[in-house]
Amino acid sequence: MNGDYANKKHVQKQVIYDKMREMIVSYHGAECFKISQGDLTLALNPISKDSEFKPPRFGADITLITANLPDFNGREQTSRGDKESFVITGPGEYEIKDVFIKGFLSEGPDKKINTIYLISFEGMNLCFLGALSNPVLPDETLEAIEDVDILFVPAGVSGTLDPVSGYKLAVSLEPSVIIPMYYTKQALEKFIKEGGDKVESIDKFVVKKKDLEGKESEIVVLKEE
Questions:
Q1: Strands (E), the chain
Q2: CA-to-CA distance for 92 and 117, rounded, in angstroms?
Q3: What radius of gyration do the chain's Cα atoms show?
Q4: 109 within domain boundaries
């Protein structure tokens, strides 16, 4: 009896542990994503109040901004009450709350500065291309982008990568999963067509490292919250 009880408690603890290690990715329009794992929340390119897109309504421990444009630079949106988000706005190396981030200079719309971010925590490697407009990346950046689990790529709005060049670049980086962002309906359809498979959109992407084993550039489309 005691053995059964102990085994049950072990299973319950394992379930709780696995839940804590799950990464939850939700999409909030434009290039705005909320990424949560346990008690940690990241905001990627939160939308500002000056954008035509709807600003997000969630707080974050860490906020990453790739380009100083209204669709991406809503840093004021991710601090809540007394909790101020740690905001990163450019190239460099950062370590916050056991999250390791590297930023690389790239070209955005109208030749403005865009930063590509590599984000590593809890054994997962994410690459966020942001408002990238030029698919030709410097060798230094290409060498750094390796073993990517989840890649976020723009797909055809306001001077960012068009669906074809966006897909080709994404596949060349060999991620397990590709999440398109910043697209029109027609652009998204073209992006998916490049992949050759039918893709159904989902509410959230809930994933653990082991779930990605064997996946090669699988497209995941998220519904906007």
A1: 23-27, 33-37, 40-44, 62-64, 86-88, 92-96, 99-107, 113-121, 124-128, 150-154, 177-181, 205-207, 218-219
A2: 9
A3: 18
A4: yes
CB 187 within 8 A of CB 155: yes
Taking the C-alpha atoms of residue 165 and residue 154, their distance in angstroms, rounded to an integer, is 10
Residue 21 gets which letter from DSSP?
Answer: H
> Which residue do the tokens 């999409």 mark?
27
- Whether 194 is in a domain gets the answer yes
Residue at 134 is within a domain = yes
Tell me if 110 sits within 8 A of 84, measured CB to CB: no
CATH number at residue 95: 3.60.15.10
Answer whether residue 224 is part of any domain: no
pTM of the model: 0.90
Total structural domains in the chain? 1
Phi, psi (deg, nearest 5) at residue 56 = -75, 165
Could you report the per-residue pLDDT of 55-107, keeping only the tens digit for each?
998 999 999 999 999 999 999 999 877 779 999 999 999 999 999 999 999 99
Structural domain that includes position 108? 2-219
Q: β-strand 113-121 against 124-128: which pairing, if any?
A: antiparallel
